[in-house]
Amino acid sequence: MMILPKKHLYLEESLFGFGAYLLKHIQMKISVDKLWKIYISEYKSNIYQIKFNFDQYIIAIDYLFAIGAIEMNEKGEIYFAVNQVNSR
Asked: Which domains does the chain have, with CATH numbers?
């Protein structure tokens, strides 16, 4: 598992690419568990074909938080930080 894609690693296989996939599903406030369930459902349906385990998923969420792409409210829901800024 690599954070960034390389010559022999497709974007979808990297945490960078997985984070982009997750951002697509964080348009509204959502729990970390619900987002995981969405990913698992889309993986099983071959919508997203790269297998990540839960630890890698948490690392991708941490990465998105660290770069300021997402934030978390007091209920533990995550949301796309840019949408929150634009809605003020």
From this structure: 11-86 (1.10.10)
